[in-house]
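[job 4471] stage=fold_predict status=RUNNING
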Amino acid sequence: MVSDQGSSPHYQQAAGWYPDPAGSGLVRWWDGRQWGPLQYQPPLQYQPPMAQVPVPHYVAVVAPKSVGVAFLLAFLFGPLGLLYASVPGGLIMLVVSFFGVFLSFVTFGLTFVLSWLTCVVWACVAANSHNARVRYQAYR
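[job 4471] inference complete, writing structure tokens
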């Protein structure tokens, strides 16, 4: 028998299998007073393969935009109404309309009317394409 009583953390513990004090990674028999010669490799804990662990699925919900509301807002408010359907489009048309006001004096209002109609068409197209993207994402 191997005696290691002084350095054993199990000196006062009951008999049983404990990690080897020599640090071998094995377990060794402690008879309550001293270490025995018997050692063995403890069985590994079962861990399920990663492929069997369920992966959560997240769904982003995006509300569709009404083409009718986009048309009405752009018709009534021009570039400001276009902001509902397309923020970049609304900002671009705000700048275009700002310069269009000055050009409308030369073109007798034609530039202003064309930029206003462009806002209406752009709003309808932007709302429709937004809805198409939402439908595509939902059916993927």
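[job 4471] summary: Residues 36 and 113 are 99 Å apart (CA to CA).
[job 4471] exit 0
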